Each structure stands twice: as structure tokens, then as C-alpha cells.
Amino acid sequence: MRLSRFPIATTKETPADAEIVSHRLMLRAGLIRKLGAGLYTWMPLGLRTLRKIESIVREEMNRAGAVELLMPSIQPAELWQESGRWDVMGDEMLRIKDRHKNDFCYGPTHEEVITAIVRADVRSYRQLPINYYQIQTKFRDERRPRFGVMRAREFLMKDAYSFSTTAEDLSQQYELMREAYIRIFTRVGADFRPVQADSGNIGGAKSEEFHILALAGEDLLAVSTEGSYAANVEAAETKPTGTRAAAAATLEKVSTPGQKTCEQVSKFMKVPLTAKVKLMVAKAADGGLIGIAVRGDHEINPIKAAKHPKVASPFEMARIEDVQKAFGCEVGYLGPVNAPIPVIADFAAAEVADFVCGANEVDHHLKGVNWGRDCAEPETADLRMIVEGDPSPDGVGTIRLLRGIEGGHIFQLGQKYSKAMSLTVQGENGESITPEMGCYGIGVSRMAAAVIEQSHDANGIIWPDAIAPFRVIVTPIGTDKSPTAKQTAETLYEQLIAAGVDALLDDRGLRPGPMFADADLIGIPHRIVIGDKGLAAGQFEYKHRRADKAEMIPATLEAVLEKLG
Amino acid sequence: MRLSRFPIATTKETPADAEIVSHRLMLRAGLIRKLGAGLYTWMPLGLRTLRKIESIVREEMNRAGAVELLMPSIQPAELWQESGRWDVMGDEMLRIKDRHKNDFCYGPTHEEVITAIVRADVRSYRQLPINYYQIQTKFRDERRPRFGVMRAREFLMKDAYSFSTTAEDLSQQYELMREAYIRIFTRVGADFRPVQADSGNIGGAKSEEFHILALAGEDLLAVSTEGSYAANVEAAETKPTGTRAAAAATLEKVSTPGQKTCEQVSKFMKVPLTAKVKLMVAKAADGGLIGIAVRGDHEINPIKAAKHPKVASPFEMARIEDVQKAFGCEVGYLGPVNAPIPVIADFAAAEVADFVCGANEVDHHLKGVNWGRDCAEPETADLRMIVEGDPSPDGVGTIRLLRGIEGGHIFQLGQKYSKAMSLTVQGENGESITPEMGCYGIGVSRMAAAVIEQSHDANGIIWPDAIAPFRVIVTPIGTDKSPTAKQTAETLYEQLIAAGVDALLDDRGLRPGPMFADADLIGIPHRIVIGDKGLAAGQFEYKHRRADKAEMIPATLEAVLEKLG
């Protein structure tokens, strides 16, 4: 492509709401333009990258045996009522009434639609397994759209849905997708990590997320130092050590005027945070209140807590008024001794002996407290957030925390949708089988932004070759003084195109500075500069976008192709 | 692709609401599945054709110098309020409120969005001309979605928008698109015709539609017998001959009890329909009523009539009560003599002498009526539908009527949107230029159905090679008895794939009948049958989908490739 015919619109300023580097660079490089909150146009330059990611996804999905189709973006409410999700999905689902006042939504995901399609078209076990996918525009009405296309409302997604006759086959389909995802993220050029994940409101048993590691990531990942374990902290397990020191201290009430937080109490009483047990109060599954004890240095994990049968789901902290009424005491002084509500304890909290906790009396705490002696042995569970330094749940190494951007998510749904929507197929002996489903998503448009978060410098984007809008830019300089550089550049450009290389020719005739600045900002991986001086020595100047300095290479197509690799 | 791994779902029955052959065949061949009214899933087989059409469109748009981008499907109401179309677009535009109760629409078209983008990014005349296009899912909430993907609510469209500094350059951009469209429709394999068209609510001056000729077409086209003129009847002009016979008869009132329609009166009074003038009453631009006189054998063209300054736009017939009140007479007996409202006449009606018309008195007509003698010479205009046998408006040949399916539409919009949305760029001498816009659409998904309307037989679809889901199907027969046919078919299939041919292998091991029936129904253009008998003679059986009979060819890849052309 010639820049004289291909509109680019690089800018120096970015709006204040562009908080992260990928958002700023995508705007500055003119890859995207904002139309409204969470609504972006992919400009020609950005669309080239988007289409390349899309092609990689398509190729790997096809290679894994999945079959592409295209479902409507607008879905009738009836299907969501069948699955029971119409009332569960919150405001994030964009609900629509058509001219006849019938209810629809702009599909945030397509489990219901694909289940209805398979229900109508698939009759026999012989037609399974099948894995349908599509690459399609989705809409999720985010409460707070931000970070450009990273968390947009309208976005491009690849969603796939597999149907199997057995749980074993579902595992196999899932594994095929897991491998395809690893190939996709590798080919895109991302530094990524598959991690165990929570299934959220999609439902189902096993699930993993594919995270692109970046400081701007909204997710925190727990990764073992030995690389053998990785999970989203939302889902990362913690395990009991199975040991607790014997009670040594005697129970004592201490006056702690105004000392409400664990940090204040720890400092005031000169005990480490790890010797403190804090009691938080949440809404219980039965509509009442439930106390959750965690160690002073730990936090409740609301996702894991909500899975406890006694805790309300979704997790919700109790209202302060309700807590104060139940305890007859200000929050900040609560503890498990003589608590007026049921108490469950996180594994780690239950393993502390001689601990400090609130006395359920204003301005007072207890010390030397012991479970089973001063209060009942609590029911224990995995209720807290994993922290750095925790032993890895798989027993190998310790945990460190990384930030990641969720680029993909794969789920074993099981029979959640096939049961709810009465999907059955006939088995080998005429029996009725309810298929096991899996679903597999990739945020295609998000991936472009996530790669930029990983790959940029002060001058702009540094695209991996595979998804660069153009792989190489040919820049003639000094063209106002002599026609040779321009002609040579034209020839090289034509040769590169003929060789199937995605080349860009900067034929704008600007000064070198602005041309180089644009090429750096838009992140073209390879740059060939052609000037009279180099040509006199039979040379082109070559520079990789990551290199500090340019180098001279022979002025031949072969030398250029060798550099492109 | 192997049919054992590629799901097809052919069926024998189609629902009663599938009224046209393409809708029935697309359902029977399993190309599409209905999700709701006007909402269709493109199944894997259908999607392959859709993507091939999409690729042809993209290649030709790129070749014509247009640049692809991708705008959001969801658009803020503000832009439509700026252009003045928010209140003009009827129920066909799907209006949406987001979680914050802000107004949006699912874009039925993107003039407003692209104008806003160019307004933000383009500063100088040097950046023009530019032609942006996208291939994107659109939604139009049709009152009566029908004919499958032919008139669906959600559909795939290519829309392009050009911006020029002068009207001359707009003409050039328009011409480039016109040529690209001719190439696209030709490559897709359609029998099509570009015709002059009305611009509808998109606005602008010149426009042409690209129609795929088919009996099921919803549009009527007026085409000259010499091929020199073609227009949608909505837009087809008629011209005055400039002659009228001198008045010969005397005015006479005739009793015509119960004879209300032109046909009744013509028969009763024994005069040809061409000697009758009927007076229709429409809403006038000033809010009152206006009489429109057309010849007895002609009909009002509401699109052309609405362009007359005295007629309300959009065109609307007057309410019967209002007409009867104004005339003091039942409709069916109206005429221009002593009409109590202003009357305008179509050219042809104004050229009739000694005509018959209603007497504005129940059960009575007048005969021997003459304009300028018995009533005022009327203001004349082009107000009627063109009919078969009319002289061609370009003076060459006469008109015949064809049916067409609108596959594309190109418009010279002029400054309608650039003016309304204050888009200006700086000219060569610093002056402010309001760009001239063009817009160019193709119904990508509709095109698939339209081609089927043209190209099918009793057994199913007959795809043109360029958009067939697969070009050739290799079908081994008798595989239960001998492995040779199966192995040979596998080899040929692999060779075809390696040669870049989009081949399908029917490895389902069914009886020949069902395999041939499926191949015919889904419309694969070329079929190779491989059986032991043929192989013994060193031959494959080849049949083109259009051929009556199969023929034997040498059992070699070369012979097959030669047949594929």
C-alpha cells in the first residue's frame, strides 16, 4: 500500500480519559476513533491488525476441526427465558424492543442460540462431537466502559460451542480448544498464560482463562514460582496446612479505644497481623447473617465465599445497621467469641492459636483466644484471597502475583444449557442422550490492545510481525533533490508486494523526521530507508523497530527479505 | 473438506412461509436456519458462499481505491439528530436505550457516523478524495420481513462513502464505484442490470440500483427494447408527446348507474380505457386536497407525484370522507370539470381529447370532454407509472417491464450530510469547502439468495463457480464392496486440495442416490463419481450440475482440472 492512498491520521494529543498506554497509542496512531462511550470505529490501519488476528483465530479454529457459522446478533428473549438467564443477566445485556414491542437482546454471548440450532438439526449421536464457532460483533453494556477497545461495549469476539455425547469427549474437545488457544496466542505474538478460572454466570465446571501479561491488566493472577500452577486469584485455591499450635495463652480482654482496623489493633497491641482474626459479616444463604473469620492479613474472596452453602450467592456484605443490631456493637470490634450469628472460618484463620480478635464490645478486643476453647471449633473452608508467598496449591513452589488481560476463556459447561433447553440426541441403542457442552471465547479486538500493552516504547507501538498492519515500510528520503531514491523505493516496494510481503511505501515526500516518527508510532516492525548516500555505496538502511540503531545492508531485494526472516 | 467432518443438514420439507424458491432451497440445503422473524443463522455451508461473495466485494472495492474500516453497529442518537434523520426514519430503525437511558440505534446505514469521522480527521483538500467502506451487519426492522435472507431484518451489507472537493470529482468517484459494481455483479455470476433509481430518504441527486433479474424480484424495472435505457419503475420517467387531437365531440352527460371503476365505465360506454381520464385525490403540500388526473389505463407513481411542489411528500391518498365532503359526491364519479379542488394532470392524461370522466355527480359521467374548453387547461407533469409499450424515455425503442432484486444501490448524495453536519475542509487557497458525498451499498447476504432465484432447477441450487460453497464434489460409490474407489477418491481429493481447488469429499459411505441428491440440492457445480467399474476402464465420471448427462473422463487429476476450467 502507498501512504499517499492510504489514510493515516496520527496525532500528538490524546484525551484525558485515555488512561492506559494501549488506549493512548491506538488513538495517537489513528488505529481507532471513539464514536461514543465504549464504541469505537476501527480505522483502516487498525482494521488491518484486527483482520490479521481474526485470520489467525480462524485458521487455528479450522485446524482444530471447528466449523464456522454466523448467528444473528439480535436474539429473541424467549430463548433466554428458556435457559433461565433472561432474568439473571443484569444491565450488561442490552435489551431491545422491536417495532411490535417484542423483547430481544443484542447478543452478549450465544449459548442459547447455538443450543436451539443443534436441538433442531442434530438427531443422532453419530453427528457428535461438533464444535461450531463464529467471529462476530458482540455488545455488553458495561457500567464503566474504559481503556478503549480493551473494555468496550461493542467488540469483536470469537465464540465457539462444542457438543459431545459424554463427559470424556467434552474433555477432549476442551483439550483441542486449549491447544488451539495456545497456538493462537503464540502466533499473535503475545506473552500469555493459561490460568484456572471461575466460570461466572456462564456456568459449568472446569474453566481456564488465557491472560496476556501486562501491568495494565485488570486481573490478578496467582502463579507458582515453579510455573506448575496458575490461576486467576478469583479462583485460586488455598489449602489448610493441617496444623495449629496448642493453646498457650490465657483469654484476656484488652481496652483498645478507637482501634478498629486490624492494622490499628496490631500496632496498638504489638502483635503481627497474622496473629489477628477478623470477623466479617455477610448475607447468609438463608436470608440472615453469617460471620466469616479470616486472618488479619487476609481478605475474603467473594467468588469462593459465595460457593459455600451457608453464604448468599452472589456474595454480599451485610448492611452495617443489620450487623450492629445483631451484635449490639459497633463494627470494628467483632469477634467469634459469643458471636450472636453462625461463624465459618477460612482455613488459615482456623489455624491460628492464641489470637487477637474483637470482643463484641466497643473499644475492646480479646487476646489469647483459642478455637475450641474460647469459642466453638468453626466450620472451615477456603474463603480467602490467595496472597503472594502462599504455598502453591499444587504443592510445588510458592505463589507470586502477576497482572493479566483476559484474552480468552474456555469452559466445560456440562449439561447446564442442554438440560435447561431440553436438547437430546439419540444414542447408539436408541437411548436419549443430553449432550455435554463446552464454550470457548476469544476477545479478538481486545487482543490488539493487549499486545500493545506488552509491546511498545516511548515512540509508539511495536507490532509483532504476525499482526502488524504492514510488516515493512519503505521510506525514500531526499526525494526533492534527486529522483533516484524515489525510483529505487518504488521498485523495491513493487518487488516486495510481488513477493507477497505486506509492504507500505511512504511516498508522501515529507522530511525524514516526521516519516520516521509516523512509522515508529504506528509500529511497523521493519523499516528500509533509501537515500542517495546509501545507494551510492550500493546500500539500503535497515532498522528493526526494536533495534537501537539502523544498519546498512546491500541494496537488494534478497538482503531485505533476509532481514524480514 | 470431508463431509464426515462438515455438518450439512438437508431436509425435504420447508415451512409454509417460505414463499419463494431461494428461501425454500436455502432452508432445504441447510444454508440458513431461522432464529426469529427476519433473523437467520448462516450455517457452515451457507457461510462459505457468503464469505466468497464478501471476498469478491472486498477485492473489487480495494481495486477501485476504496479503503476498508469498521464502524460500530450501535450509533448514538445525537448524530442522527444532527443530520435531521432521527425523526424522519420510521419504525424501520431499531431504536435502543442503553443502561443509562441514552438513545441509540442499531445502524441501518452509516452516513452520519462516517461524516463525523471525516469531520474529525480530515482537514485539507489534499486528503480528498477518499472512499471509506465497510462490510458489516446491519439491522432494519422491516414491517414484514420475508423471503428468508432476501428481506431479512439483520443482514450483511457493504456500505461505502466517498468524499470529494467538487461535484466533478464526486461524478468520478461515482463512476469508479459503478465500474466496481459491474465487476462485482459479473464475478458473482449474476444476470444483472444497473437501472436509474429514486434516492429515497438517503437523499441526493443521481442514483442507480443494480438489479439481479428474477421473477421473484420485488421491483419492477422499465427497460428499453434497445437496451439503451433502464430504470426502476419508481423512477422511470415518461414524457409528453406534445400532441393532442383537436376537440371534435360535444360535451354530454351520461347516466352510468353503479359504474364506478374505469373498467366498468369503459365497458358500459364502449370507449377504450385510453379515452378515459380518471381523477384521483391526494393530500396537497398545503394540507388541503389536490386532484391528479391520469389516463384510464395509467396509475399514479407516488414517488414521482410526491416530488411535485403541490403534492404532499411522502405521497398519500386523501381520505374518502374528505373527498366526498369536498365534491359532495361519491368517489367513482369524479372528474376535472367544475372540480372543487385544484387539478394537475399527467402528461398523457392532458393529451387526450374528447375524453370520458366522472361528472362529479353520483351515477353520472361526462363524455366528449376537452381540456381548455370544458375545464381549465391543467398544469401538467410526469405523474404516472411507466407501462409496457411506452416509448423509451431516451427516445430509443419501447419499454418492457422486468422483475429485479435490488442487490446494490449507488448514490450521489451531494452536500446533504456534509452541510447538515457542518463538515468542511480547507481548500487550496485557504477557503472552506463543504465536501460532496457519495454512498454505495451492496446487500451481500441478499445477493446469495438472488443468485439462487436465477440459478436453480427442480433438484436444487446451481451455484456459479465463483460463489459455490465448494466447487467440486468427489463421490466414491460402492465403497462397501471394494476399497479401491474409496482410496482413489481420497487421493484425488487430496490432490485437488493441494492444487488449491475448493473440493468436497463425500466420505459418508451412503448409497449413490442420497449422495447425488445432496450434491444437487446444495448446488456443487462439478461432480466426480468414482466407482470400480469406471476405474477398471481408467475413468472417472464427470457431470456439471447443469448438464443432463454425466460423461466419462480419464481417471487423472489433469482431466479433472481441465473440466473445472
Automatic annotation (TrEMBL), chains A, B:
It catalyses: tRNA(Pro) + L-proline + ATP = L-prolyl-tRNA(Pro) + AMP + diphosphate. GO terms for molecular function: aminoacyl-tRNA deacylase activity; ATP binding; proline-tRNA ligase activity. It is found in: Cytoplasm. GO terms for cellular component: cytosol. One of its GO terms (biological process) is prolyl-tRNA aminoacylation. HAMAP family: Pro_tRNA_synth_type1 (MF_01569). Belongs to the class-II aminoacyl-tRNA synthetase family. ProS type 1 subfamily. This is Proline--tRNA ligase. It comes from Hydrocarboniphaga effusa AP103.
